[in-house]
């Protein structure tokens, strides 16, 4: 995997932008589905729009595809303003959530649909459909009707049908949502392979954070029509910056604190050191967080020096196999979750007093 | 007797079904049977022996065949126009939210709910007021009028299960609005459109009341039979009735088979 290239870096570079949204807003009646979004997606990216249902991610994708017209703002594809253009006038193709394969056409004609509209000569159509079915591993299925295919096969046909047109940008609307878990994992890897192979920008809408982190090199986390956080998977996981992102991307322990410079005081007087990077901000009431797997447990007197440490009581212990999940309660009644790898035999029983410790750089501050 | 009652008790549904079907089809069978009756005189009500002479002389009765041809022409024309207009109306009603949409929905039901006598007489009044001479043209107009309602209902039913993403997918793949309609929408709703056409054809073909008001000098097949019944129906009417029944049932069976095949592909 390439090192997490972030949205910020993409913005600073001079590579051409595949998709640019500026000030895009979409209302449905009184509901603002997409609220003044500005977004830049570079060439050859695997870009994920991630968020809960109703956050505006699908509407954003549909506006790029031309299925919805924005109420305000403009959309550019490779520098060309496409706002108001019909879907068939845009150099993008879409893989729909329900696949939307044409039930009256066989696999070959489904995949060939776009080429036929572009009046590509018949011999070339046959050749390119063959290549495409090869790419998505559906050789020999060309005479089947969509009704005779499994979910995973339909998904591949939908992908082939879009990719065969060599779109500058491929839009994927929850493409794996209808598949079972095992198939979904396989297709995640498959999609990533295909994206590497064809080398075009994929814009992928999903509500599954794991799916987004597995596949995308840049993730835009959306909430209530806005982009909450933008960046590479590692970056936004380690420093979510908002309580929403911290909660949506994995689990996290959030605590109230009173900040003074590079340190914060918790309710019981414990002092927590904040990371030096990203510590810029105003003093006063803050929320700070730490991921459960970043914490470790010690006997209260054995807390290593230099680490952040909170005294707590073990409330519940769940042995998962690869790890053990501890539920702790602090002196002021807040719950903490700590995930510990099963490396040694040291276990902490329910009811015992422990120190939950972590390194200062693993602390993050959310707004 | 007891054995029969025992059988009936255990096969109640079967017995009931056979009875219901007999009730429906005995008149049809009688019509067919009497097309082979060697009748005497003007009436064809008592069985006098088997003959094929009416089938051989099917076209000998003056005006009978002409009226049949007229009915076919009217049925074809009115069903065709009603299918085109009705399909477009159904598309508009299902796809778009516009002012007067629910009113249109309601108005479309009216021709089905209005008694034919009322529809026929008011149409006649309209034609007379506008001094339009009644005849072939006014019959077609009247039939289109009531057929549209049935077409809209039939096509709407087919459209309600239609996945709009299919059209978006077509447009995503460079098909403009017209190509999308021809290549995706129409093939998908075609069974419904075809069924609507057949329904309209049948409704027009056997309409008597509305036609009777607006026919002028034009004599359709039902009007001919009505006129002939008073002086004695020639057995050739049974011949044509039988022929039409057989042809209709054949087409229906064909339709069902085709529908089954296309459904199997969709499922």
Indicate the percent of residues in helices of chain A: 10-25%
Shape of chain B: globular
Biggest interface, residues from each chain: A-B, 27 and 22 residues
What portion of residues of chain A belong to β-strands? 25-35%
How far the N terminus sits from the C terminus of chain A, by CA atoms, comes to 30 Å
Number of beta strands of chain A: 20
Weakly predicted, low-confidence segments of chain B: none
- Determine and state the CATH class of the largest domain in chain B: Mainly Alpha
What is the third-level CATH name, the topology of the domain at 252-366 in chain A?
A: OB fold (Dihydrolipoamide Acetyltransferase, E2P)
State the share of residues found in helices of chain B, binned by percent.
Answer: over 70%
**Total domain count of chain B:** 2
CATH superfamily grouping of the domain at 252-366 in chain A: Nucleic acid-binding proteins
Tell me which CATH architecture of the domain at 252-366 in chain A applies here: Beta Barrel
CATH architecture of the largest domain in chain B: Orthogonal Bundle
Describe the structure.
The complex is a heterodimer of chains A (367) and B (267). With 367 residues, chain A is an alpha+beta fold. The two termini of chain A are 30 Å apart. Chain A is built from 9 helices and 20 strands. Chain A has a domain of 115 residues: OB fold (Dihydrolipoamide Acetyltransferase, E2P). In chain A, helix 3 crosses helix 4. Chain B folds into 2 domains: 52 residues, no CATH class; 172 residues, MetI-like fold, CATH 1.10.3720. The model of chain B has no long low-confidence stretch (mean pLDDT 89). Helices cover 77% and strands 0% of the residues of chain B. Chain B is built from 12 helices and no strands. Chain B is globular. Chain B is mainly α and 267 residues long. In chain B, helix 4 packs across helix 9, helix 4 crosses helix 11 and helix 7 crosses helix 9. The chains are: A alpha+beta (367), B mainly alpha (267). Chains A and B meet through strand 6 and helix 3 of A and helix 8, helix 9 and helix 12 of B.
